[in-house]
Amino acid sequence: MNLTRLVYYSQRNPSESMDAQDLIATCERNNMRLNLTGMLHYNGDHFLQVIEGGRVEVSALYHRIARDPRHSNIILLSCTDVRERMFPNWSMGMHQGMDDRARGIYLRYFSTDDINPETVNVESLLDVLQDLSVEMAPRLRVSNG
User: Fold this and answer.
1) Span 79-90, pLDDT tens digits
2) Which of 6, 44, 121, 142 maximizes the CB count within 10 A of its CB?
3) From the centroid of its chain, how far is CA 144?
4) What is the CATH number of the domain that holds 79?
């Protein structure tokens, strides 16, 4: 079975209510069952997510997300086969907000912390998410399975 990594960016639909803790709990429960892993960054206005797993499962999850009314203006940034997972131990890690440490991580890779999904370098974006997962681990909501 191929291992696939998908990265997308979306805006939060402000007309839909959303509880981030409920969202991540659902992700953890469903992803663990499907052997999906990943990282979600949610700053209150935008979502940036990496999903890793089998090609069929990743594709099905992305299509469910695309139909979810809490998301708008979804942009698929990357979908590719990979040799290994970046977030192998997490059914879904989540970083929420944009504090000074997160801003510093973004500024390490980009000229601004305001990411334009139409021009962003996906490899640098993956570096940001990986750094967030490592440097901010004590504040991340994480499921280790």
Assistant:
1) 999 999 998 877
2) 6
3) 16
4) 3.30.70.100
